[in-house]
Amino acid sequence: MVAFPPCKINLGLRIISKRPDGYHDLETCFYPVPWTDVLEIVRSDSFSFTQSGLPIPGQEADNLCIGAYRMLQQEFQLAPVKIHLHKVLPTGAGLGGGSSDAAYTLRLLSQVFELGLSTEQLHQYAAQLGSDCSFFIQDTPMLGSGRGQILSPCSVILTGLYLVIVKPEIHVSTAEAYQNVTPAKPDQFLTNVLDSPISSWKNTLINDFEKSVFEKYPRIRKIKDDLYEAGALYASMSGSGASVFGIFNTPVNLKRTFAGMTYWAGTVS
Predict the structure, then answer these.
(1) For tag attachment on the chain, is the N or C end more exposed, with fewer CB atoms within 10 Å?
(2) Is 222 a catalytic residue?
(3) Is 8 known to be catalytic?
């Protein structure tokens, strides 16, 4: 069985407070993007995990797809499977690719073994794997709060608009990004900002990570500036970076502008 785990962008990302458990309470809108990895899971005589495409940093044993399988294996005594992940989405990009792969592993395993897991059950398992894994259990925009695992419906619609995502060859440490943010309560509700015209988002829809990340990596700031120069209605860093996206009314070709960087563009579905 094959699935295509998508990535996400963050429309606004406010860090509200630091929690006693060391995590942070945040507020964001997760928006799915049809730029995907490829994930295949089939029954097998023995467990195996293989990978192709872009390299995945870290130890294989720490891969979230394997963690998702082990979680359900322990719960439901699952038989062995073969998992193959073809990696297209860049890692360390603020796009949630690893979280999406993990969530889709849960979704596929539920289908392969006919577990009949509900959306709520899948959310609960996904939340144990990572803060934004739960978002990828469903394929619709969601408001995220808490660590990002508390989700509620979001009315924002970008359908038909053109999206450009640019990822420079820069690694931004998520832990360091959080250390450099001063939590604060936003002066506007995110829902109110998202309900306003996209043309007004430039000064109101804020990613709190940008200030410190841009100071350390001016090249990332320049990508955002270049997207606005090219006519973007709105541009922002996604997550803690290093990817930056721009939303346009009509298709644009900016491959030459961002030559040497990872580049994706397409119409939002």
Answers:
(1) C
(2) no
(3) yes
